[in-house]
# Entry
Amino acid sequence: MHRRTALSVSAALLAVAPLLAACGSDAHPGAAAVVGGERIEVSSLQAQVRDVRTAQQRSPHAAELIKATGDLSREKLNVMIFDRVVDRVAADHGISVGRGEIQKARGEFAKQSGGEAQLAGMLLQQQGVAPDQIDAVVRRTVLMNKIAAKLGISNTPEGQKKLTEVFTTASKALKIDVNPRFGAWDNDKIQLGTYTAPWLRQISQDPQALEAGA
# Structure
């Protein structure tokens, strides 16, 4: 099956970058980051981390899963910021996603994974996603697929460069300010400092495929 990749632009978006000088976030006490003038509260970040840790602790492979996600706070903050960049790109191009689309795509992903339980297990193991965070992953994937289709992005160096430029522009426009304790946001790499988000490699242009691995 022919598959174009919307954001397996890992080489372009996920290249290791030096940690940028942190923006001062002292003006935003209690915020993990401020994106487009909107706060991501430390409490919201901590709640996401707790959900994942709770799910991991229920797994027979709990110790292994927890060890593999030792920097979970930064991982989750990276995702929370990136989601807002995705939303900005989608809004800039008149793209939206409905609840029905999310549920349909989730059903397709579950079917390909062997069922809901298998999908949940895969996402928890590979991406540090708790069961109640799965819809957010699916929503992001559907939006990314639509963005790639709208922009005519293909899995070529030129396509990847174009996608990176679009996301960098949106990222800069949002004026992302991260609490220094978590590092600093890199607009050019669209990521938090030197953190590399594995889930970015799994976004497929084919909405019926949620690929695992690089």
Summary: The chain has one domain: 27-202. The CA atoms of residues 11 and 128 lie 21 Å apart.
